[in-house]
Amino acid sequence: MPDDDVLGLRERKKLDTRMALSDAALELAFERGLENVTREEIAARAGVSVRTFNNYFTGKNDAIVYRQSVRIRRSLAILRDRPAAEPLWTALTAALLEPFEADGAQFNLPNPAQLAEIRKLFSLAELRFAVAKEVSADWLEVIAERTGTDALRDLYPRLVTGMIGAVIEAVMVAYTHADPPIHITLLLRRALAEVAAGLPEPPR
Questions:
Q1: Predicted confidence band at 127 (pLDDT cuts at 50, 70, 90)?
Q2: pTM here?
Q3: Where in the chain is the domain with CATH 1.10.10.60?
Q4: CATH of 1-57, one of 3.30.70.270, 1.10.287.180, 1.20.120.350, 1.10.10.60
Q5: Relative to the CA of 75, which of 83, 86, 123, 191 has its CA 20 to 30 Å away?
Q6: For residue 7, what pLDDT is reported?
Q7: In the CATH scheme, what is the homologous superfamily, with its name and number, of domain 64-196?
Q8: Mean pLDDT across 145-162
Q9: What percent of the chain has pLDDT over 90?
Q10: How many CA atoms lie within 13 A of 124 on its CB side?
C-alpha cells in the first residue's frame, strides 16, 4: 500500500477515535448527567484506554464540544463548494444546515432530561470558545471571496462572519429553552432567514 494511503488510513482512524470518544461522552452525559461522567467511563464506552482519551482531549468537556467544532468545519467546507453565483445567505443556510441534517437532528427531539443536559453543555465556556475559534479567519476569507470584498478593508465580510457566530449562539440558547421542544434545524433555518431579510422588527 502506498505511503499516502497508509497515512490517510491513520488519519481516518484518528478522526474516528475522536468522534467515538465525543459520542461516548455525550451519551454518558445524557444517561447520568454531565457532572457525573469521568474520562475513564468515556474511554471504556468508546473501547479505548484512558491514555488514548488523554491523547485526544484535555477533559470530558473538550470531548463533548468536539462534535460542534466538526460541524462548523464541515459547514465551511460545504460553503467553499457551493456555486459561486448562488446568493450568499442561500449558500450559508445550506452549509450550516447540512451537518445537522446529516446527523439526523431534523428528526430527533430531546426529552426533558436530555434538554436539561443540553442546557448544561451549551453553557460550557469550551463550547463558546470552540464556536468563536471555528467561525474565524477561514470563514472571513471565504465570505470575502464569494462577495468580491476585501477581508481587511471592507466591513461586510467581517459583519457576516460575526453574524454567523451570533446566529449559532442565539439558536443554541433558543433551542435549550424552547417549550415545547423544537428541532434545532427549524430554529437555525428561521434565524438565517430573519438575518437574510435584514432582521425586521417582529410584530408586537
A1: confident
A2: 0.86
A3: 1-57
A4: 1.10.10.60
A5: 123
A6: 54
A7: Tetracycline Repressor, domain 2 (1.10.357.10)
A8: 96
A9: 65
A10: 21
